[in-house]
Amino acid sequence: MTLPVIDMREVSRRYDDGPPALHEVSLTVRRGEAVAIVGPSGSGKSTLLNLIAGLDRPDTGTVSVDGVRVDRLGEAGAALYRRSRIGMVFQFFHLLDDLTVLDNVALPARLAGAARGRAERRAAELLELLGIGRHGGAYPGRLSGGERQRVAVARALMNRPALLLADEPTGALDTAAGQEVSRLLSDLHAEGQTVVVVTHDLALARSCTDRTVRIADGRIAEDVRSGAAR
Length: 230
Ligand code: ADP
Fold this sequence. Notes:
Helices cover 35% and strands 25% of the residues. It has helices at 45-52, 75-85, 101-111, 116-129, 145-157, 175-190, 202-208, and strands spanning 6-14, 20-29, 34-38, 60-65, 68-69, 86-89, 163-167, 195-198, 211-216, 219-225. The protein has a six-stranded mixed β-sheet, with helices on both faces. A four-stranded antiparallel β-sheet has the order 2-1-4-5, with helices on one face. α3 crosses α4, α3 packs parallel to α5 (145-157) and α5 (145-157) packs parallel to α6. The longest helix has 16 residues, at 175-190. The mean pLDDT is 94. Adenosine-5'-diphosphate binds at residues 15-16, 18, 21, 39, 41-47. The site of adenosine-5'-diphosphate (ADP) has 12 residues, from α1.
């Protein structure tokens, strides 16, 4: 048995005096799975995502990702973990507007110490693979929302992450662009990439994942495998 990519055990997190944002949540995601985390606003999805990304720590319980005890990392360790083990995609892309598309994509490798030529070659390959090779020299501001999200996905894949973590990746896109991004995630999953998508968008959840975990009031209310990602 290989190690799961995500292994969360009895994780609880509460903010101040509020009710628990997460209550004894246990979640295992195996290598190659594509999982949608769904649930109403305030149910605890962002809290879960932040714990997986090492942006926050649980009050109790453990969080392991790709064999790393994320809940034990300090700030520098968490930054290194995020750079090397996971790739993140956000609703509003978070691209750097004064870098070219190619440089945006190459950046995670450069930050990890890769030589410029090598980083740029892989960035160009990824852009090609994602169907936006011709935009490498452009600045993100010139691209459509769908194209920007492809750039963000390319950047997230730059350091060959064990886990691709997407937070409402279609939230800022029109229907057609959203479907394209959904197809892209689905293709990556088909190629073996482990993917976790946090979303309100049930169509996205259905179309690009094979398992849906529904969170309600800080607990896992439902965990369903569809077995039909495509
Ligand atoms: P979701 O992403 O599903 O909308 P969240 O994880 O953001 O849910 O929130 C879960 C609960 O935790 C909510 O009740 C929310 O108000 C609370 N919460 C989230 N972040 C904070 C914070 N930084 N400070 C205080 N309460 C928070």
